[in-house]
From TrEMBL:
Protein name listed in UniProt: Adenylate kinase
EC numbers: 2.7.4.3
Top-level taxon of the source organism: Bacteria
Enzyme class: transferase
Subcellular location as annotated: Cytoplasm
Annotated ATP binding sites: G189, A190, G191, K192, G193, T194, R306, G352
């Protein structure tokens, strides 16, 4: 395993496999361009190693150029087209072979395609060392593919992570963190607390309740707790940044966990974004937002019942209860939409016995953990 900046990578494709792929690509090019004097164009920076290997194996005459994607130029009326820095060669009527280290979404390729068509090349082919079929969404044909890989981030053999890794002679893949992270949602009275406690034991997850984290930090006068308290004392909302930092600290404390159940967080899209960014930096993500769905009338009934024994004043007054439910739906609507867009929203019927509801939640989680 190696580390580049903050990320860990594990060996993925050996030098031998890469050499084999390059041999194959080179033989295809030798056959296709025998006696034709093609222009090889390597797309920098990533393709320098691959281009060098292919060109060394080419047996006829050829020309070699390297380009780099430049900035956008043009006017609003002509549309903006990116330039290729270094393309100072007349390509009209030439047979061009584009050498790419990797084709991922294909965005880069589409831009180069436009430029080459404008240059009136006689023909052009794309040869890429690595290709991600699951990520590729474009129609520009990629005729020659070295190694097809899943939609994962790789480094080495010219490819970098934030500038590092290009010199590695084999390819490494971003190390994945096999956690399951859930955002648990439910209106007041839905039985969220009960279910979180059961699920955390059943799946060995760490339950992070924002309320508990706040109380812990304030009670123990941690730096973040004091910061949060200063806002609370002024009657202001605690800024997202302070909240997310507290939660991050909580996640850090539980390194090696199977995953987390986030409870009471995120509450806003900004928080959801921050959480997703943070988990991404840990090589993981939010896998699902699971919401317990219970009709308002049943919630009101349950909470009034609880109020009789809990002594919580906010459980005793029907108007207060109804308002808490309304606030919940205003918040949830935004987040439901946010996670739904990513296909991560799961609504679960929250009416039934505790066991029945656990069963329904488990179905979702089992599927996620497969
Ligand atoms: P595109 O998404 O096909 O336009 O890929 C554009 C560029 O993203 C490539 O030329 C690479 O520089 C970079 N890239 C895509 N996938 C990876 C990867 O897995 N590792 C490193 N760089 C990548
Ligand atoms: Mg590239």
């Amino acid at each position: 395993m190696i580390k580049l900046h903050d990320l860990e990578f594990e060996p993925f494709i050996s030098e031998g496999e890469i050499t084999k792929a390059i041999d194959r690509i080179s033989e295809e090019l030798n056959a296709d361009y025998d006696g034709k004097i093609p222009v090889f164009i390597g797309v920098l920076n990533g393709s320098f190693m691959f281009a060098s290997e292919v060109i060394k194996r080419f047996r006829s005459d050829c020309e070699v150029s390297f380009v780099k994607m430049g900035s956008y130029e043009g006017t609003e009326t002509t549309g903006n087209v990116r330039t290729l820095v270094g393309l100072n060669q007349e390509l009209k009527g030439r047979e061009v072979v584009l050498l790419e280290d990797i084709v991922d979404t294909g965005n880069t390729l589409v831009e180069i395609d436009e430029i080459l068509k404008k240059a009136e090349v006689a023909s052009y082919k794309v040869a890429t060392l690595f290709f991600k079929p699951a990520a590729y969404k474009k129609n520009v044909p990629v005729q020659i593919k070295g190694i097809e890989i899943p939609d994962k981030f790789i480094v080495g053999f010219g490819l970098d992570y934030d500038g590092l890794g290009r010199n590695l002679t084999q390819v490494y893949k971003r190390k994945e963190n096999k956690m399951t992270n859930l955002v648990l949602f439910g209106p007041p009275g839905a039985g969220k607390g009960t279910q979180a406690t059961i699920l955390k034991d059943k799946y060995q997850l760490v339950h992070i309740s924002t309320g508990d984290v706040f109380r812990f930090n304030i009670k123990n006068q941690t730096e973040l707790g004091l910061s949060a308290k200063s806002y609370i004392d002024k009657g202001q909302l605690v800024p997202d940044e302070v909240t997310i930092n507290m939660l991050n600290a909580e996640v850090e404390k539980n390194e090696g966990a199977n995953g987390f159940i986030f409870d009471g967080f995120p509450r806003t899209e900004a928080q959801a974004e921050a959480l997703s960014k943070y988990l991404e930096s840990k090589g993981t993500e939010v896998h699902a937002m699971i919401a317990l769905e219970v009709e308002d009338e049943i919630l009101v009934e349950r909470l009034l019942e609880r109020g009789k024994t809990s002594g919580r004043p906010d459980d005793a007054d029907e108007a207060v209860i109804r308002n808490r439910i309304k606030v919940y739906y205003n918040e949830t609507a935004i987040l439901k939409n946010y996670y739904q867009k990513q296909d991560k929203y799961y609504g679960v019927n929250g009416v039934g016995s505790i066991e029945e509801i656990t069963e329904r939640l488990s179905k979702v989680i089992d599927e996620l953990m497969k």
